[in-house]
Batch of 3 targets.
Target 1
Amino acid sequence: MATASFKISDFKTSIGNLVRPNLFNATLSGYKNIKGVGTTTVALPDIDSTFKFRCEKAELPGRTLATAEDAVGSGPSLKLPYDITYNDMTLSIICSTDMKERDFFERWMNKIIGPGGASNSAGLVSYYNDYALGVELKVEQLNEAGKTLISYTLKDIYPTALTPMNASWEETNTYQRFGVTLAYRYHTYELK
């Protein structure tokens, strides 16, 4: 019995063009309407013009179906879905020399829960409508020509964690960056 030989050219033809993870775009909108405790008169810095260049890493979001086992009757149990869980989004942000990006997320978190200190708002929690409702993050996967292949829009997002930033004499040939974790209510997607 003869076996077909493997040819690299057949493999290349079959696999076709692939999507590269470094070709993406991330934009943040709706944050200008954020209100909150304590620092309500201090607006968040405007990052519209630089955010897509400062966001060096994003994720296309995932989701999970929560299931419960139905063990009624005899035989193997059956897993049945009852809810959707949306995974938190993690971004990596490059800092500019004015630290505007870090300041943006620090202030946003201060509007969610009043920071400690001498202010009257220390520990007070804002209403969800004031810090998340209407805020969106759009992450687009692009092809090599810059055309959007798929676009995800995360609805009603807000930061839940900022990572520490290194201050080190060892790191001389790099730039300052930090991570931010965002929670959101749900996402939609559109295949272009």
Note: Residues 15 and 160 are 40 Å apart (CA to CA).
Target 2
Amino acid sequence: MKTKELTVKQQSFLDHLVACDGDAKQAARLAGYAENSHPSVVKALKTEILDMAESILAQSAPKAALKLVQVMDSDAPIPQANMRVQAAQTILDRVGLGKTDRLDVNVNNTGGGLFILPAKNETVIEGVYAEEN
């Protein structure tokens, strides 16, 4: 995939976006953009922001998997265990490691199949047509 060249300001915005915990308005201000220009900056960098979010989720996947195992193996009560499990499951679903639906399709083909007919020959009927009065 071809990545576009980013300006120094755009790269600064993306760097600050992570440092500001995703606050686009604050990231735009720190990157030197005009006040209230963050919606247009976000629109221009939508693809890069989505790629960054995908990378963050991918980096969090091992932690999410380990949290699921930790909650599963723990004999002691874990505060907010249900919420933590849901968060971990959501992260794993987003990176493609979640529960998948499987569809089992079996086709029993016993002698059936495709029957190809020969091309039809054009039938021409010659004659004279006369109308009766």
Note: The radius of gyration is 32 Å.
Target 3
Amino acid sequence: MFSDTNRQLRKLSIYKPMNFRIVEIDFDFNDSLEDITEEERDDIVEEVMMTTWEASDGDDLVEEITAATGWSINSIDYCYVLS
């Protein structure tokens, strides 16, 4: 699949993304030119874990979270949410 295929499929009305909840996530907060506080880090993690994410698969989920937060992910644990 091309890297943009999943995004294109989401635009189709027949495409139904899955819902995910994050159980645990580890961001690469060291990969930055600027420092952020521990409180800011905690806020980012809390916001991500409180959100129900739509994605086509685990790789797409990582891309969605990275795009939304601007931070790379070292590791992630998630579960599917039945709609």
Note: The mean pLDDT is 87.
